Amino acid sequence: MKRTVISTDKAPAAIGPYSQAIKINGMVFTSGQVPIVPETGKIEATDIEGQAEQVMKNLEAVLKAAGSDFSKVVKATIFLKDLGHFAKVNEIYGSRFKSEPPARSCVQVAKLPLDCLVEIEAVALTD
After folding, report:
1. Residue from 14, 4, 95 nearest 52 by CA
2. Within 10 A of 89 (CB to CB), how many other CB atoms are there?
3. Lower Cβ count inside 10 Å, N or C end of the chain?
4. Residue 1 clears pLDDT 90, i.e. is over it
5. C-alpha neighbours within 13 Å on the C-beta side of residue 115
6. Domain of residue 71, residue span
7. Which residues of 70-83 are buried (b: 16+ CB within 10 A; e: fewer)?
8. Following CA atoms 4, 13, 74, 88 in sequence, which dihedral angle do they give, to the nearest 10 degrees?
9. The domain spanning residue 49 has which CATH number?
């Protein structure tokens, strides 16, 4: 079993002692992605739609760096600061999974990194 650390500058750099993702045995396990814009290192969107869109862009970049994509995601977890945002996040998230969506959990949490509104992690198959 070869364990590979995945890193890309197309997604935010890790802000702690963790990797953007780990690839092992034909699978990739991503760290939670937050709505940081990689080019600026800041959260620019203040609304849930903008933050969810940036999270999905960051997640897509990490999956791509690992040789995967949304069609290969088997499990995702969404963390929301406010479960009242569920419908809006679900619409943005769902636009990436038109058919055969992955298993998923969605939970409301007390606080997220940098006080953002949404964080999403995924497990996917790789090439």
Report:
1. 95
2. 24
3. N
4. no
5. 2
6. 3-125
7. bebbeebbbbbbee
8. 180
9. 3.30.1330.40
